[in-house]
Design a protein that fits this description.
By secondary structure, the protein is α/β, with parallel strands linked by helices. The chain has a domain at 1-71 and 183-241: Rossmann fold (3-Layer(aba) Sandwich), CATH 3.40.50.300. Helix content is 34%, strand content 25%. It has seven helices and nine strands, in the order E-E-E-H-E-E-H-H-H-E-H-E-H-E-E-H. The chain has helices spanning 49-57, 88-98, 103-116, 132-144, 162-179, 190-196, 229-239; strands at residues 5-17, 21-34, 38-42, 64-66, 73-76, 150-154, 182-186, 199-203, 210-215. The strands form two sheets. The chain has a six-stranded mixed sheet, with helices on both faces. Strands 2-1-4 form a three-stranded antiparallel sheet, with no helix packed on it. Helix 3 (103-116) packs across helix 4. The longest helix has 18 residues, at 162-179. The radius of gyration is 18 Å and the shape is globular. The relative contact order is 0.18.
């Protein structure tokens, strides 16, 4: 029977701090990332949300436990991290070139993902010529064009104004539906988690563990949810925890 989730089991992680000595980040962290779904992690600053994402991406080690290994993980950061000397098109092509994808197939994939993120008219522009939202769309395309098994998103819209943030959330949902993409989202924005996620893990302060796991009750994800009593009650419950 196929496994329908990526599991994080009994994860233990600590840092050596010059000020406080050994700091335990995770003692016994357990989570599941369901395939084809959006899983969000909420929690206070410093609880290890971004550290967890870095471990999943392979950027950080850990003492013990199990995380998904040898998986194709794509990361979208808080800042777009585009190469400033490359155009939008060249940024998206970069990973494809490194993977040895032939020019004809590269062209096909670049056009597909430019269209998906609505940047096909801006392919020849440099990052400095784009708005913050457009830069983040280019970063999304650069990551998704490599067909990651899991898209890891580290508070990707936190620097955007409310209007742009809402637009990017809608785009994320469109991409998720179109590509049937598994997404692991780290955020401190309760509304963002409720709008985007199927499952929300609420983390406690260090040594961090799961304080609460919530299955989001609505099936349709859209802005109209924000006006419902169910959304209001669940939002207040999360904010007051």
């Amino acid at each position: 029977m196929p496994d329908n989730s990526y599991k994080i089991e009994h994860l233990k992680k600590s840092f050596q701090s010059s000020k406080n000595g050994q700091m335990q980040i995770f003692e016994d962290l357990n989570m599941e990332i369901e395939k084809g779904k959006i899983t969000a992690v909420l929690g206070p600053s410093g609880c290890g949300k971004s550290t967890l994402l870095a471990i999943l991406a392979g950027f950080e080690g850990y003492e013990s436990g199990n995380v998904p290994e040898n998986k194709n993980m794509g990361v979208v950061f808080q800042t777009p991290a585009l190469f400033p000397w490359l155009t939008v098109e060249e940024n998206i092509a970069y990973g494809l070139k490194r993977h040895g994808i032939k020019k004809t197939e590269r062209r096909k994939q670049i056009e597909k993902y430019l269209k998906l993120v609505q940047l096909n008219e801006y392919a020849g522009l440099y990052p400095r010529e784009l708005s913050g939202g457009m830069q983040q769309r280019a970063a999304l395309a650069r990551t998704l064009v490599l067909h990651p098994e899991v898209l890891l998103m580290d508070e990707p819209f936190s620097a955007l104004d409310p209007k742009l943030k809402s637009q990017m959330q809608k785009l994320t949902l469109q991409l998720w539906k179109e590509l049937e993409q598994t997404i692991f989202l780290v955020t401190h924005d309760v509304e963002e988690a409720l709008i985007l996620a199927d499952t929300i893990y609420v983390m406690q302060e260090c040594p961090a563990g799961v304080h609460k796991k919530i299955q989001v009750p609505w099936k349709e994800k859209n802005d109209e949810i924000r006006t419902t009593k169910e959304f209001f009650d669940l939002k207040n419950s999360l904010l007051n925890n």
